[in-house]
Specification:
276 residues; alpha/beta; Metallo-beta-lactamase, Chain A; seven-stranded mixed sheet; 14 strands; globular; binds zinc ion
């Protein structure tokens, strides 16, 4: 797009899964990390590996206190301040802040409220509530120009609010955590199986596919299947379910599917935006 007010949104899934989650979203001028589960070294190495070494990080947005999302808060906050010469705020709800283990608390912690949007430079940040078995969990969508990009993982069931937010997204990470049969036949103790399946656990492939059928919007271009369980899912099963869902709503041709993973960052997704 040639107009003066256009800019590209950059969206890079650095890691996704129960061992560590982190996604970079930016527009060249400003940028944020959503979650910092992997080690600080992994996060920065992976940004480097996909051409984002010098990409701006103006804030880190934490969804909830589980260590696969917040594990590196303390170390990353120190490292970013040292390397970039100024403190970088780590945003989270008061419930999440109160529930962080002491060794995870960042010195630049700033509390935010679900449902109250705020700006990080040129980006709009919209934190919204999701059902998960933690103190005050949220998901985020980021507004860049006329586009919304977001990460929706770690939820036990899709809610009306989640559907509303997802319907606005052009780029989305959507949780495809487990295949129900694999979970039930798998190695987890019964209590853990119950937790994963509960309304405050994680979305199954079928639930996530139903969510896409219900809420995929006209602007949707990219879906990254996220937070896949190593033990209780198969990327091909998840992809098959997602593709069937998109086919059902006539979106198979325009929406690109990828599977996020634990071992390496996905190539950044770039989409054009116009001044909103
Ligand atoms: Zn998680
Ligand atoms: Zn979690």
């Amino acid at each position: 797009m040639g107009n003066l007010f256009s800019r590209d949104a950059i969206f890079a899934v650095l890691s996704s899964g129960s061992k560590g989650n982190s996604t970079y979203v930016g527009d060249g001028q400003n940028g944020v990390l959503i979650d910092c589960g992997p080690s600080t070294k992994q996060i920065l190495t992976r940004m480097d590996a996909v051409g984002l070494r010098d990409a701006p990080i103006d804030a880190v947005l934490v969804t909830h206190e589980h260590s696969d999302h917040a594990g590196s808060c303390r170390v990353l906050a120190k490292r970013l301040e040292r390397e970039r010469g100024r403190p970088v705020p780590f945003h989270m709800t008061p419930g999440t802040a109160d529930s962080l283990k002491p060794q995870m608390i960042p010195h630049t912690l700033q509390t935010i409220e679900a449902g109250r949007m705020f700006r990080v430079g040129s980006l709009t940040v919209d934190p919204f509530r999701i059902p998960h078995d933690t103190a005050d969990p949220i998901a985020y969508r980021i507004g860049i120009g006329d586009r919304w990009l977001g990460v929706v993982t770690d939820l036990g069931r899709p809610t009306t609010l989640v559907s509303q937010k997802l319907s606005t997204l052009s780029v989305a990470v959507v949780e495809f955590n487990h295949d129900v049969e694999m979970l039930l036949d798998g190695p987890y103790p019964w209590s853990v199986k119950q937790r994963v399946r509960s309304s405050h656990g994680h979305l199954s492939n079928v639930q996530a596919a139903d969510l896409l059928v219900d809420a995929a919007g006209a602007s949707l271009e990219h879906v990254v299947l996220g937070h896949l369980s190593d033990e209780n899912n198969d990327p091909n099963k998840a992809l098959h379910q997602a593709a069937a869902a998109l086919h059902k709503i006539g979106a198979a041709g325009r929406v690109k599917l990828q599977v996020g993973c634990q071992s390496h960052a996905l190539e950044p997704i770039t989409i054009g935006t116009r001044a909103g």
